[in-house]
Target: NAD-dependent epimerase/dehydratase family protein
Amino acid sequence: MFPTEKSKENTIPQCISPYAITKYASEKYLDNYANTYGFKYTVLRDATIFGSRHNIGRVVPINID
Model:
């Protein structure tokens, strides 16, 4: 079951799988590294919807724009 309510950017994720835990830990590692060495970064948490009209070629260009 997926959450149905919206969350804020500072909401701590409820990691329920090893994959989710790894993604969140990687973000925290990047955050600590950036704070230590003084650079800015952006993390994209994309949700790819897959279906009959799915076009993988559009995922990257949309994020870059």
